[in-house]
TrEMBL record:
The keyword Transmembrane applies. GO terms for cellular component: membrane. Keywords: Membrane, Transmembrane, Transmembrane helix, Transport. It is found in: Membrane. It holds the Pfam family SNF. This is Sodium-dependent transporter. The chain crosses the membrane at residues 12-33, 39-64, 105-129, 141-164, 176-194, 226-244, 256-283, 309-333, 353-374, 380-399, 420-442, 462-483. It comes from the Archaea. It is a multi-pass membrane protein.
Length: 493
């Protein structure tokens, strides 16, 4: 690595910047648009109980596992798995990279939507209520084709500008955007809870429907949300930890990052839920209908329609979509950094790696930008496929020795983890993930009688087919084509 490359991406300059980067990576759109509706639909405060348990039993232990591999090898997911566990495990790391990258293609489109709706806010769209405005604006935007493509291109240009500078670019971005997310969400929350009738919305959020805890679906939804929102298994925390120093703390950093994500979600929850609960009845709509409309329906259709009914709604709506864009973009750069780091591990310069990934990302994002069905299909296939990543992490931790890895994690840490971590990573996390994965597959089978049909958007068949093809190609390429280029000298422990 030449001196210029070192100046670009050696280590994080400060611990707080690493923490901001990891929180930014995890506080994605899911924390703002998916978490609130799940809370409203699955028992309010009762939902927070399984959610919190999942954070401590699955998310934090798995993030620590990622941190061990990243910090000890200073490599991305492919070389990291090969170097830490052995060359035969490199394909597992490549699978994690691919799932992350496949998500990246359509996630950049969603990030572009957020930017577009922020621009709409600046133009005053949310200032005057017009019945049906939400669906008309969405149909006009998504139906134009060129607008989603344009804003996706802007996202990829911004991504390149940030990531071509390595950790320095990430640091400059997150030190502004991440604090802004929390400040904006706090402002939106204050406006929501000070509206007349806000107690109705707060009741949706904080009513403790404890009887819901006997419903297995509540627990499965909570665990799913935690796995998707905290970044456990994405390879992002592993990649960011590869820029840590030898004795930097991974235990505390993992805990802070996971709890930071939860804090953002808890801010967004009452803000969104209360806004909908107060304004939806004004136009004769049941709030529960709005919450059940899905992520896109809640955010880009209904909230757009309801913001004009709020005092200072134009200002609040614009701020909300700015926070959503900041959350999505800080996740976008983290997702893109995973394949970039893998390419630099193979000796490609940072500039070229960032350029290759961003160009490929833009080109392969086009189908999702053009077709909402394709975006939904990819979100289903790789969103659920992401659950497999956590199983692969557990395999590597067990293979290399849970007790030994626990001691590695404790080196340099302000928080010493006990043997409970062994049980979480070796048993609880994989069992929980296996149950959630099975549940999602069973759900999809119940949705479609012809569940085997790979042409259905949300079928089990399309997921199994795409997983099988990807896994086969990855296994052959890594084990036969790239095997000789993988550095497998194991780190000293």
């Amino acid at each position: 690595m030449n001196s210029n490359a070192r100046s670009i991406e050696t280590t994080w300059r400060a611990r707080i910047l690493f923490i901001l980067a990891t929180i930014g990576a995890m506080v994605g759109s899911g924390s703002i648009w998916r978490f609130p509706r799940l809370v409203a639909m699955y028992g309010g405060a009762a939902f927070l109980i399984p959610y919190s348990i999942a954070v401590f039993t699955v998310a934090i232990p798995l993030l620590i596992a990622e941190g061990i591999i990243g910090r000890e090898t200073r490599c991305g997911v492919v070389h990291g798995f090969a170097k830490y566990a052995g060359r035969e495990y490199a394909w597992l790391g490549a699978w994690i990279m691919w799932v992350n990258t496949a998500i990246m293609f359509y996630y950049s489109v969603v990030c572009g939507w957020s930017l577009a709706y922020f621009i709409y806010g600046l133009s005053g769209v949310y200032g005057v209520y017009k019945p049906g405005m939400g669906i008309r604006l969405w149909s006009s935007f998504i139906g134009s084709v060129w607008q989603p493509i344009l804003f996706t291109a802007v996202v990829w240009l911004l991504t390149w500008i940030v990531l071509v500078k390595g950790t320095r670019g990430i640091e400059h971005t997150v030190r502004v955007m991440v604090p802004s997310i929390f400040i904006i969400l706090a402002l939106v929350l204050i406006r929501a809870i000070t509206m007349k009738g806000s107690e109705v919305g707060l009741e949706y959020m904080f009513r403790p429907e404890i009887h819901r805890l006997t419903n297995a679906e509540v627990w499965l939804q909570a665990y799913s949300q935690v796995l998707w929102s905290t970044g456990a298994g994405w390879g992002i925390f592993l990649t960011y930890c590869s820029y840590l120093r030898k004795d930097d703390d991974i235990n505390l950093n993992a805990a802070i990052a996971a709890l930071g994500v939860s804090s953002a979600a808890v801010l967004a929850g009452p803000a969104v839920i209360t806004t909908v609960a107060v304004t939806a009845p004004l136009i004769g709509i049941d709030p529960l209908r709005v919450y059940a409309e899905g992520n896109v329906g809640l955010t880009f259709i209904w909230l757009t329609e309801l913001f004009p009914l709020i005092p200072f709604g134009a200002f609040i709506g614009t701020l909300f979509f700015l926070a959503l864009f900041f959350a999505a973009f800080t996740s976008q750069i983290a997702i893109a950094e995973v394949p970039i780091k893998v390419l630099t591990d193979f000796g490609i310069s940072r500039r070229r790696a960032a350029t290759y990934v961003c160009i490929a990302g833009m080109v392969l994002a086009l189908p999702a930008a053009i077709s909402i069905d394709w975006l939904n299909n990819q979100d289903w296939v790789w969103g659920v496929g992401l659950l497999l990543n956590t199983l692969m992490l557990s395999i590597v931790m067990v293979r290399t020795g849970l007790e030994r890895n626990r001691h590695v994690a404790n080196r340099g840490s302000d928080i010493v983890i006990g043997r409970w971590w062994n049980a979480m990573v070796g048993f609880v996390a994989p069992l929980s993930v296996a149950m959630v994965l099975t549940w999602w597959i069973v759900q999809s089978i119940s949705w479609y009688p012809d569940w085997w049909n790979p042409l259905k958007v949300f079928s089990t068949g399309t997921a199994l087919l795409q997983w099988s093809l990807a896994m086969s190609v990855i296994y052959v390429v890594v084990n036969r084509v790239l095997a000789s280029r993988l550095s497998c000298e194991k780190p000293q422990r």
